[in-house]
Amino acid sequence: MLVAVRKIQKALGEDRVSIEQDDIESHGYSEWSTSNSTGRPVAIVTPRSTEEVSAIVKICTEHRTPMIPFGAGSSVEGNFSSPFSGICIDLSGMNRILAFHEEDMNITVQAGVRWTDMNEKIKSANLFMPMDPSPTAYVGGMIATNCSGTNAMKYGTMKDWVVNLTVVLPNGTVIKTKRRPRKSSAGYNLNALFTGSEGTLGIITEATLKLAILPDETSIGVATFPTVKDATAAASKLIRAGVPLAALEFMDEVQMSVINQNGGAGGRKWTEKPTLFLKFTGTKDSMNEAIRQTQKLIPGYTSDRLIFASTASERESLWAARKEALWALLAVRPENTEIWSTDVAVPLSRLAEIVDLSKKESGNLGLFSTVLGHVGDGNFHQAVMYNPKDPEQYQAVKACVSRMMRRALEMEGTISGEHGIGIGKKDYLKEELGDSTIQLMRALKRSVDP
Amino acid sequence: MLVAVRKIQKALGEDRVSIEQDDIESHGYSEWSTSNSTGRPVAIVTPRSTEEVSAIVKICTEHRTPMIPFGAGSSVEGNFSSPFSGICIDLSGMNRILAFHEEDMNITVQAGVRWTDMNEKIKSANLFMPMDPSPTAYVGGMIATNCSGTNAMKYGTMKDWVVNLTVVLPNGTVIKTKRRPRKSSAGYNLNALFTGSEGTLGIITEATLKLAILPDETSIGVATFPTVKDATAAASKLIRAGVPLAALEFMDEVQMSVINQNGGAGGRKWTEKPTLFLKFTGTKDSMNEAIRQTQKLIPGYTSDRLIFASTASERESLWAARKEALWALLAVRPENTEIWSTDVAVPLSRLAEIVDLSKKESGNLGLFSTVLGHVGDGNFHQAVMYNPKDPEQYQAVKACVSRMMRRALEMEGTISGEHGIGIGKKDYLKEELGDSTIQLMRALKRSVDP
Fold it and tell me: Which family does it belong to (chains A, B) (predicted)?
C-alpha cells in the first residue's frame, strides 16, 4: 500500500497526496452516517482530471490496494467507508463545469461539482437539474448512490438525469457510456448500471446531465393532521387523484418540535403535529388549480391547518423547515449520542401502515426518534438518537431498524429507497433480492473488476 | 438442434411446438422491418409460464441451440432475426395480467400482454401505462427494446416504467430484479440493464410496471409551416420555453400527402406542408394556459395554420394521422418495394440541421422518402421506399442511411433513439461508443451468458 502511495506522489506531485491524521479521519468517518467502519485509508489523493484518476487506479490495481472514491462525504450508509483500508480518491478537486449546452438543455461537469453551485450558475438560463439531496452533495456521489430527494415525485431519481458518464474502470481504462442524445436505445444502458453502483464498478469522473426548465411559479402548502395515519391517508388520496404535486413530504410531531427547538427555520412557530409539506410548481393558473384540487380533497383543512405561502420568503421558510430536518436533528442532539438514520420504501398502499408500526416500535425504545419521508414515493426515513457506546442501546436500535427493514420487505418494498446500501445494509440486500439475483450482481461485478 | 426440439416437445407437449413453414416464415421475416436475415428458426415454441421458459432455455443451452425470444414481431431493426437459426420462443401465449395493484399504481403482467389491451382493462381505474410504441407491441418486447413513442417527451422511456422484472437467464435460472417499491437504490439497477438488452442477457417473462393517472383533459394542436426548418425551429422554441407539452411530433409534407392518399385518418384533408402535432394534457385550466403560451410563441399561427381539436372525435382523428403514419406508408407503397425505416437522435440544438440535411440527401436518391419524428426528444425517423432486389437502389439507400447515422454521431447523437440495434445497426454501435465501451458490454454479456 505504501509503495502505491509513493508511486502516486511521484506521478501527481507530493502536494496532491495527504497522509495527515485529520484528513484521514475526516475521510474515513462521518458523524452524519449511521454506519462507520474502524478501517481508515492510508492516504488521501486529490486528482484534477480523468487522466489522473486513471493513473491512480492503475497504480492501485497493480499493487492490489483498495480504492475508495470520495465525494462530499455526505452519504449516510457508510458508502465511503474503508473497511480494508486503502487509498481514498477525493474528487473535490474535480469541480469544473466543462461545457454548458444551453440550447440542448444539458451540462457536462466533473464529478466534484456541487449541485447547488451548478444550479446557481445556470439559473440565469432558466434551467436547473432537479435532484435535491443534501445541499453539500457532489454530482459524482449523487450518481453513485442514485440519489433523489424531495423533487423525485415530479422529476424521478438521479438515473433519469444522466445523459452520459465518463468512468475509470478498475483496470484504469476510461470509458464514455454514451454521446449526448436526449434519448437513446443503443446498446446496454451503462448509465443506469453505473448510477447507483456506489463506486463498486468504476469511478465516475465526468457526467453530462439533463436539465429542466425552471418552473414559473412555486407555491408551498403545509397541512397538519391529528395522527400519522390521517396524514399518510391524505397523502395517498392526493397521489391517487393525480394532483400534480412537485413534492409531497411528511414530518412527524417530533420532527416538528425539533424544528421549533432549532429556531423554526426562519423564526416560525410550528404546530407540533404530523405535518404534510406540499410543493406546487408550474404556471400560475395550473398551480392555482392544483391548490384548489388539494383543498377539495383534504376537507376541513382550508384555514389554519392548511397554510399556503404567499411570498417568496415565506415559501423559502416553509420549505427550509423540511430541507433542514437532518441539520436540526444534529443541532439538538445531546452530547455523546449519534443518529441512526435510515430509509426504506414500500408500495404506496402500505406506507401508512409501515410508518405507523415503525413509529410505535421506535417509540418503545425509550429513545428520541422521529419519522419523516418522501411519502409521494412511498419512501420514508427514520432517525433514532442513541449512545453508540452503550451496547444495550446500540443492540436495541439495531434490532429495531432491522425489524423495519424486514417489514418493508414483507410489504414487497426495499431496504433502501435512496441512500444506497453502503456497508450498513449489505446483509439485508441478499434477503431482499434472493441468492440468484445477488449471484448475477456478483458476476457483473467480477466481469468489470476481475 | 432437432434433439432440442424433440426434448421441448416432450417437456411441454407436441401442440406447443410448431415446425409449420408459415409459422417459421412469419417468425423469421417481417415486412415492417428494415433488416431481415436469411436465417430462419427450426421451430416455434409457445410457453405459458416462466417455468416453461426456464425449461426451454435449459434444453437449448444444453444443446447449444440459439434461442430467439419473440413478442409481437413489430420491431423494425431485425431485433428478432435468427441469423444462426435456432429455436424461436414465442411469448404470445403468456398474455395474462397477474396482479393489478390499483392503490399502488402498478400492475404485474406476463411478457406477452399487449399494452393497448392492458391499458383498456385498467382505464376504469383512471390509470394507464404511458408508453405508446406500435399498438400491436407486447410488454416484453417493449422492455427488451426500451421503447418509447410520442409520449416520451412527458413520460420518459420504457426504462422509467419498470418496477421489477422476472428474467430467465441463459442457464435457465429465474431471477427477479426487485420487489415492488416505487423507488429504490438497493443494488445494481438490473431493471435498466435488462431494459433495452434486446434479449441478449435473458428472456423477460414477467414485469411489474408503474402506472400514471389518466389526464383529465387532452387537446391536440396541429400547425403547418412553409419549411422543415421553420417547423423544427418552432419546436425548439416551445421546448426551450418550457411549455408543458405532452408530445411534440413532426411530419414532413411527403408524409402528410401519404396520410391524405390513405384516407386522411378519419376523412380530413390535410395541408401538405411540414407539420407539427402538439399534444396537451392535464386539467382544463393548465391545458388552456399551455395552449395560450403556444399561440404566443408561434405568432401568425393562430387561425388556419394552428388548429386545435375541440371534440374528442376530432382529437382522435388528428392524433390518428400521426399514429398511423407507418401503416399509411405501407398502404401506399408500390408493389415490390420495401420501406427502409430507421431512427436516430441528436442533441436538441442540432435537430433542425440534421433533419434538413437528411431530407435533402434522401430526396436526391430519386426515391420516395419521408421524415417524421419525436422532435421533443431530438429523435426522428426517416423512411425510404426502395426495391430490395435492385442492388443499385439497395446500395444507394444503405449509403444514405449510413451517412445519416454518421452525421448523428458527429453531432454527438446516437444511431438509435428508440428502435434498438437489432442486426441492422450492429456495425455502427462500435463507432458510436468506441472500443473500450463495447468491450465492457461484451464482458457484461459474457458474465451473464458464459
Answer: Belongs to the FAD-binding oxidoreductase/transferase type 4 family.
Nearest residue on chain B to A210, judged by CA atoms? B347
C-alpha dist (Å) from residue A331 to A177, A265, A377: 42, 12, 28
Residue B330 has a pLDDT of 84
CATH class of A333-424: alpha beta
Instruction: Please judge whether B159 and A189 are an interchain contact, meaning their C-beta atoms are less than 8 angstroms apart.
Output: yes
> How many other CB atoms sit within 10 Å of the CB of residue B303?
7
Judged against a pLDDT cut of 90, whether residue A194 lies above it is answered with yes
What is A94-213's CATH number? 3.30.465.10
Its CATH architecture, for the domain A217-326, is: 2-Layer Sandwich (3.30)
Nearest by CB: A421 against B175, B186, B196: B186
Q: How confident is the model at residue A425 (pLDDT cuts 50, 70, 90)?
A: confident
Q: Which residues of B touch A417 (CB under 8 A)?
A: 181, 183-185
Residues B83, B86: Cα–Cα separation, whole Å: 9
Query: How do the domains of chain B map onto residue ranges?
Result: 2-92, 94-213, 217-326, 333-422
Please give the mean pLDDT across all residues of chain A: 90
Beta bridge partners of B418: none
Mark yes or no for CB contact A286/B244 under 8 Å: yes
| CB–CB contact B188 A441 (8 Å) | yes
Fold of the B333-422 domain: Alpha-Beta Plaits (3.30.70)
Quickly list DSSP for A315-347. HHHHHHHHHTHHHHHHHHPPTT-EEEEEEEE--
* Beta carbons of A285 and B282 less than 8 Å apart: no
Q: Of A33-42, A129-138, A298-307, where does mean pLDDT reach its minimum? A: A298-307
Q: Tell me the mean pLDDT in the region B161-166.
A: 97
If you count residue pairs, one on A and one on B, with CB atoms under 8 Å apart, how many are there?
Answer: 302
**CATH tag, B2-92:** 3.30.43.10
